[in-house]
Amino acid sequence: MSKSKKLWPWLLVVLMLVLTPFASSFPDGLERVADDLGFTSLEKNAGVSLMPDYTIPVIEDGAASTIIAGIIGAIILLLIFWAVDKAVRIHKQNMR
């Protein structure tokens, strides 16, 4: 595969991360249903949250905080997917 074909997915990821601060501030589907049915008042604090509301609390700039939280979240997901893929490959090799 050529370098330019490998680069496109990464450019799309970077574009999405840069645009995250401009995402809708309206509640998502589940939160909207909770609002409509009137049980958001029953909501409880989860305790410790590393990235509350998709932000990094120590970073005061809201846009930068959201972008960095998105990058961290994407890296965590990539590591999880890589680990699962590695485990499946090892398991398949051991099954032979």
Notes on the protein architecture:
This protein is mainly alpha-helical and 96 residues long. The protein has one domain. Helices cover 62% and strands 0% of the residues. 5% of the residues are buried. The model has no long low-confidence stretch (mean pLDDT 83).
List strands and helices in order, with pairings.
Elements: H1 3-19, H2 29-37, H3 62-95
Care to give the gist of this entry?
The chain has three helices and no strands. The protein is mostly helical and 96 residues long.
Key features of this structure:
96 residues
Gyration radius, rounded:
19 Å
Q: What is the residue-mean pLDDT, rounded to a whole number?
A: 83
Number of domains: 1
Q: In total, how many beta strands?
A: 0
How far is it from the N-terminal to the C-terminal residue, by CA?
Answer: 29 Å
Which runs of at least 5 residues are low in confidence (pLDDT < 50)?
A: none
Which band does the percent of strand residues land in? under 5%
> Tell me about the biggest sheet?
none
Helix content: 55-70%
Q: From N to C, what is the helix and strand string?
A: HHH
Structural class estimated from helices and strands: mainly alpha
Count, helices: 3
Write down the overall geometry.
Answer: extended
